[in-house]
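Incident log, structure service

09:12 report received: a user says their structure output differs between two submissions of the same chain.
09:20 pulled the input from the user's history:
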Amino acid sequence: MARIHVVLVEPKYEGNVGAVARAMKNFGVADLRLVKPCAIGEEARRRAMHGIDILEAATPHDSFLAAIGGMDLIVGTSGVSTASEKKFRRQATTPRELAGRLGEFGGDVALVLGREDFGLLNEELTPCDVLVTIPASADYPILNVSQAAAILLYEIRAAQAEVPHPRRASAEERDKLYEAFDDLLTETRYPEHKRERTEVMFRRMMGRASPSKWEFHALMGVIARAAKTIRRERGGKTANGHRKR
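09:34 re-ran on a clean worker, output below:
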């Protein structure tokens, strides 16, 4: 079963923090992480209701990267989604699709919610393995952060009921896969101006697929062998002319 951790990035209103803690209590999620939060006082405690233990145990962090440390999967949220390939950071899935994939995931998942006024920055979206957006009316698509948290946590909770959990690739294994893919891009002399987009797309694709350990090893073998074959054909030298150690 996926272990969900909620990350609020620079929340501006303490009442929203308390309401998120209450929603977490409703759906059995205990770990709340706050990135550079506003002052937390009586309003937050009042809104938390029976989730006050979650609010009081919430951990503050000085940076977004510190808050997502140790996670096996990072899920960013956005009120803006697009199908445009040029805006690849904003290509999102729905909460139900996300929940269906997490139903078979056995690692630690960071569910990241951004600022009340403008959400997550591009540099915060980039390390996310998956981006999710809640389908709402085009007349007013932006939800309150606590409402968004409640919807996402409900969908995840519903999908976790009595689902088998095969062993999934760990965060370390996924990082090795991304490194191998990066090496393959280098060996194939992939165009630099397309590289960042392709790397993010590959990370998102793997995040959506949530590969098992068997799938990870199979894919890792193919990618590593392809890069190795290219180097061998080149006489053992990398794309920049140096020998691969």
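09:41 both user submissions now match this output. Likely a transient worker issue. Closing.
09:42 reviewer note: The first strand starts at residue 3 and ends at 9. Residues 213-233 form the longest helix (21 residues).
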